[in-house]
Amino acid sequence: MVALLRLVRYFFVFVAVTYVAWKAVLVALDADGGPFEPGIDVALVSVLAPFLVWLVAKAAERLAREAAGSQRNLVRANEAITRENVERRRAEEAVRRAMDAIEHGNRQLVETNRGLQRETDRANKMAAQAQRASRAKSEFLATMSHEIRTPIYGVTGMTELVLDSDLVPEQRTYLEAVQASADALLTLLNDILDFSRIEAGRLDLQQTEFSLRDRVDDVMKSLALSAHAKGLEMVSFIEPDVPDGLVGDPDRLRQVLVNLVGNAIKFTDRGEVAARVTVASRDAEGLVLEFAISDTGVGIPRAKRKAIFQPFTQADGSFTRRFKGAGLGLTISSQLARLMGGKIRVESKPGAGSTFYFTSRFTVLLDDVAVAAPTAPAPTDNLRGRHVLVVDDHPATGEALQRMMQAKGLRTSVVDSAETACAVLQQAAASQDPYALVALDAGLVDVQQVLTALDGGWRGKGAAPPVVLLTSVGRSGEAAADGSPGVVGVRKPVKEADLFRAMAEALDPPSPAGDATPRPAGPRAHTPPLRVLLVEDNPMSQTVTRRFLEKDGHRVAIVETGAKALAELEDQEYDLVLMDLQLPEMDGFQAAAEIRKRRRTRSGRLPIIAITACAMKGDRERALKAGMDAYLVKPIKHNELYEAVHRLVAANGAAARRHEHVDGREAASIGSDVGRDGVHAG
User: Fold this and answer.
1) Gap between the Cα atoms of 575 and 590, Å rounded
2) Cis? peptide before 493, omega within 30° of 0
3) Nearest CA among 391, 676, 646, 364 for reference residue 532
4) How many other CB atoms sit within 10 Å of the CB of residue 38?
5) Hey, CA dihedral for 661, 662, 664, 665, is it positive or negative?
6) Mean pLDDT throughout 297-309?
7) What is the mean pLDDT of residues 290-301?
8) Whole-angstrom Cα distance, residue 199 to residue 41?
9) How far apart are CA 436 and CA 509, in angstroms?
10) DSSP notation for 576-620
11) How many CB atoms lie within 10 A of CB 219?
12) Which residues of 406-425 are buried (b: 16+ CB within 10 A; e: fewer)?
């Protein structure tokens, strides 16, 4: 259409130009005055016609080309429109499929959300069930702990009371077996409770100041009887650069040491059990100590070394195994070592013994003085530079004694037989450097030969060196010479302070008059009779606790509930309250809190001691928060109860209470109460 219009336009232009040109020619001819000849028009037309035809042809050709181009453009436009339509249909199809996919995805997402909600609900239910199970487990353990500890307290307490009486040897043997069985049952109970706490992540460590050497020595001393009964040598050595005053958890440290040393004794039939403490590393925050417990026992096969740290597992798990036990000690020890910032490992050779290493992190006291269990300094000033002969056939003991003495500035020589000792002493007596003292193992073969040689060769001449006799608990005949002139005895395993005190005493014996000098009285002399209110609902626990208190000279009244305790304290004056935590009607926590609200003694705060079979996490803290001043867990030993009473009464200033001015009526009431099995009705 555009080309056609352009052709028409060219045609009219052509006609107009032709017409104007023609008119111009005519005007020119008329102007000249010439006649107008029609032939001229014909000639002009004849001349101009081809040209005009050519112009028209060119215009037509151009119009044709433009028309063809327009046609091609139109075709291409149609093709483009077709392609666009196809692409649009494809896009619409893709959009439709995408919408279908989105709709399907939405349906799946809804189902997934529903599934997640179901799983969340299930997880919440399982978590709630787990929490209920955990609470039920804790409550079960607490109940079982209470229910088991209470009768164990009756067994151990009654046994301890009977052992303090006059018994024939056979009866004493039987009762000691009962005591040992009860202690074993209590150890198993404590292991199970500790294992449960560790599994639940509810075992917390204390941070207490304590003496490392006292703690290690106490562990070795407490296990010495069982070791010496098997003929084993017990030795411990703490390197001189190890500080004594530390901050950590001494009870958990003792637990690990007891487990490892006890296992070493259990699995060793001959030889020795040795404990060694060294500094593994130091930093600005404290130090890491390494404890090495070695034995000469059966050893552990390589394939079993990892398994022994698993719960309820032993290297020999058969029914015919020689060594019994629940298999929890090493598991608990491993977890405790981890909690104390260390780890535990073992090196062993079957038939040649084992060495257990465990590390633990501690903070060092600035003044290196432990206030929890201080030890009086040994009198070593007069020992420095002295020449000492150590006679012991156990290499580990000889080395430990030598290193202890050398650390204090003594010169030492070690021999391992009586014959060698006699020869060395003879040579030294004739030299310019005689021995100032002899440390002699009482269990040595021919030990009497050395004592006889000293008596015959030097005694009476003023040159015989004194003897520190190293004796073992439970070995008959070893202490026969202990206490004779020139001999001072020290029990193995040797405690460093005891050794140097005995050496100082042997070198500078007290004068005869000194024997009559009264020694400082023990803590029992500082605790006068008290009026004690015992709040306890278990008859057996009532009897045992009352007898413990009465043996210490105290007068005891007993009530069974917290409510009766409150009523009794309103009517009577007491110096001390011992209260069970699990009581009918009103428990010990509520009763203690109520006592703190209602009254105080005339001399100050009324001391309250919790005596309970509750040993779960938080019980002690709850008791102290409720107003109690001390916390004892059943089964309670007589000495534990006495020490707690003594410390608490002394701290509260109640030792000067007026006990002798009780009128006759009140005294008769107390006597009648005790006569009725110690039960005070209030």
Assistant:
1) 20
2) yes
3) 646
4) 7
5) positive
6) 76
7) 89
8) 130
9) 14
10) EEEE-SS-SSS-HHHHHHHHHHH--BTTBPPPEEEEES--STTHH
11) 22
12) eebebebebbbbbeebbebb
- What proportions of the chain, in percent to the nearest 5, are helix, strand and coil? 55, 15, 30
Distance between CA atoms of residues 356 and 261, nearest Å: 9
- Binned at pLDDT 50, 70 and 90, residue 418 comes out as confident
* Residue scoring higher pLDDT (286 or 183): 286
Half-sphere exposure at residue 633, Cβ-oriented, CA atoms within 13 angstroms: 15
As given in the structure block, the two tokens for residue 672 are 């009648």
Instruction: Compute the radius of gyration of the chain from its Cα atoms.
Output: 52
Omega of the bond leading into 635 within 30 degrees of 0 (cis): yes
Which two tokens mark 336? 């405790």
Residue whose token pair is 């257990």: 356
Read off the pLDDT of residues 240-257 as tens digits, 9 standing for 90 and up: 889 989 999 888 898 889
Give pTM, 2 decimals: 0.58
Q: Which one, of 454, 398, 392, 394, lies nearest residue 422 by Cα?
A: 454
Backbone φ, ψ for residue 160 (5° rounding): -65, -40
β pairing state of 245-248 and 608-612: unpaired
| Strand 576-579 versus strand 344-349 pairing type | unpaired
From first CA to last CA, the distance across the chain in angstroms is 128
pLDDT tens digits, one per residue of 366-405 = 655 434 334 444 455 677 888 888 988 888 888 888 888 8
Among 4-8, 118-122, 225-229, 408-412, the range scoring the smallest mean pLDDT is: 4-8
Minimal CA–CA distance to 252: which of 306, 292, 307, 197? 197
CB distance 207 to 248 below 8 Å: yes
pLDDT 10s digits, 202-243? 667 778 888 899 889 888 887 888 888 888 888 888 998 899
- Can you read off the two tokens belonging to residue 285? 């925050």
How many angstroms separate the CA atoms of 495 and 34, rounded? Answer: 165
For 596-619, what is each residue's pLDDT tens digit? 887 654 446 788 999 887 666 677
Report the distance separating Cα 152 and Cα 154, nearest Å. Answer: 5
**Residue written as token pair 């010439």:** 34
Structure tokens at 43: 């000639």
- Collect contacts of 483-488 with beta carbons under 8 A, ≥24 apart: 486/454, 486/459, 487/451
pLDDT per residue as tens digits for the range 506-515: 887 765 544 4
Q: Closest Cα partner for 288 from 212, 216, 341?
A: 341
pLDDT band for 475, please (50, 70, 90 cuts): low
> Is the Cα dihedral 522, 526, 527, 528 positive or negative?
positive
3-class SS of residue 652: helix
